[in-house]
């Protein structure tokens, strides 16, 4: 048994391959908490109504736990926290919803499950079955874009002032490299900036785990037995997979590369002047950088595959939550 290099008394469960230090679950938690709290201290504001996008996976589960802990500890901020799980209607999601509910209950956080089908008129499973063979996009692409739009709409409709997500360092460096190779400077700046920008209709996002490696999160969640799904979505496909493989390869031979590259891009994008002001999508009214938002473009395709007339997102099911979601 190897002992923790920090406290010297507990069994080490994680080795930091940049510093070579081995950490026990407690000391790893302290290290992750320090990074997450520094983000929350900088980006959360007094009186914030925080909606945590809680899929039940390891990242968002840890994000919920740390956000709740933060709101309990830093009482003067008077934060209100709610956990929301979007059910895309896939088999994969079914088990993680149960875990999400369990964790929220354990933390005494109100938990809501929102059905993708209620908002869009179809589930991801309906869509997956309807996509024609050989089509250029797969269900994963639709899911990512539509989920993002729905979560923003839900946050706005229930009166959240900020949306917390579980994105970790690995996710964000992959996204930034994808933005780089697409030449999309606007998207890069939007991913990186940490000042709160108020754009009508767009709920600001806070990512407490942005400086935390995915493998740190996985080790901690397992060691502490936090109720969370550890698997990866079986539908994941596309450009991200290749980029992830390349970045992991670089990190393996140059430990610390991900963090250094991320901090560099963060610093660079804070100096970049790009137009990230938003317009309203002419179809759904959601915030977008073009005339018709990406979600509406993809939703249009989805409806076509399923042979239904294009319809807007339906937010009626959220009306009843408008004033009650953050009431304790
Ligand atoms: Zn320790
Ligand atoms: Zn739209």
UniProtKB/TrEMBL annotation:
Keywords (alphabetical) are: Metal-binding, Transferase, Zinc
GO CC terms: cytosolic tRNA wobble base thiouridylase complex
Biological process terms from the Gene Ontology for this record are: tRNA wobble position uridine thiolation
Binding locations of Zn(2+) 1: 4, 7, 24, 27
Query: What InterPro entries would the database entry show?
Result: CTU1-like_ATP-bd, Ncs6/Tuc1/Ctu1, Rossmann-like_a/b/a_fold, TilS/TtcA_N, tRNA_thiolation_TtcA_Ctu1
What positions does the domain tRNA(Ile)-lysidine/2-thiocytidine synthase N-terminal occupy? 49-222
Specify the superkingdom. Answer: Archaea
Record: residues binding Zn(2+) 2? 281, 284, 293, 296
Q: Which Pfam families match?
A: ATP_bind_3 (PF01171)
**Keyword Thylakoid among record annotations:** no
Q: Name one GO molecular function term.
A: metal ion binding
What is the protein name for this chain? tRNA(Ile)-lysidine synthase MesJ
* Source organism per UniProt: Korarchaeum cryptofilum (strain OPF8)
């Amino acid at each position: 048994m190897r002992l923790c290099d920090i406290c010297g008394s507990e069994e080490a469960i994680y080795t930091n391959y940049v510093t070579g230090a081995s950490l026990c679950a407690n000391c790893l938690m302290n290290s992750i908490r320090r990074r997450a709290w520094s983000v929350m201290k900088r980006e959360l504001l007094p009186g914030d109504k925080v909606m945590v996008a809680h899929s039940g996976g390891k990242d968002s589960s840890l994000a919920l736990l740390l956000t709740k802990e933060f709101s309990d500890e830093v009482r003067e901020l008077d934060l209100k926290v709610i956990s929301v799980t979007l059910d895309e209607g896939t088999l994969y999601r079914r088990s993680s919803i149960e875990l999400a509910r369990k964790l929220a209950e354990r933390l005494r956080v109100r938990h809501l499950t929102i059905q993708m089908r209620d908002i869009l008129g179809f589930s991801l499973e309906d869509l997956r079955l309807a996509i024609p063979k050989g089509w250029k996009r797969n269900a994963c692409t639709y899911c990512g874009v539509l989920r993002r739009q729905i979560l923003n709409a839900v946050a706005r409709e229930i009166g959240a002032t900020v949306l917390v997500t579980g994105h970790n360092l690995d996710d964000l460096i992959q996204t930034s490299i994808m933005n780089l190779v697409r030449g999309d400077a606007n998207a890069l700046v939007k991913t990186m900036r940490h000042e709160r920008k108020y754009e009508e209709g767009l709920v600001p996002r806070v990512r407490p785990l942005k400086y935390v490696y995915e493998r740190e999160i996985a080790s901690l969640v397992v060691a502490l037995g936090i109720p969370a799904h550890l698997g990866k979505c079986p539908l994941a496909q596309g450009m991200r997979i290749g980029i992830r493989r390349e970045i992991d390869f670089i990190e393996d031979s140059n430990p610390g590369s991900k963090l250094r590259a991320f901090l560099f891009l963060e610093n660079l994008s804070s100096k970049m002047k790009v137009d990230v002001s938003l317009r309203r999508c002419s179809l759904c009214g959601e915030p977008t950088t073009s005339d018709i938002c990406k979600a509406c473009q993809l939703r249009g395709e989805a409806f076509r595959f399923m042979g239904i007339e294009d319809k807007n997102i339906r937010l009626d099911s959220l009306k009843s939550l408008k004033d009650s979601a953050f009431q304790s």
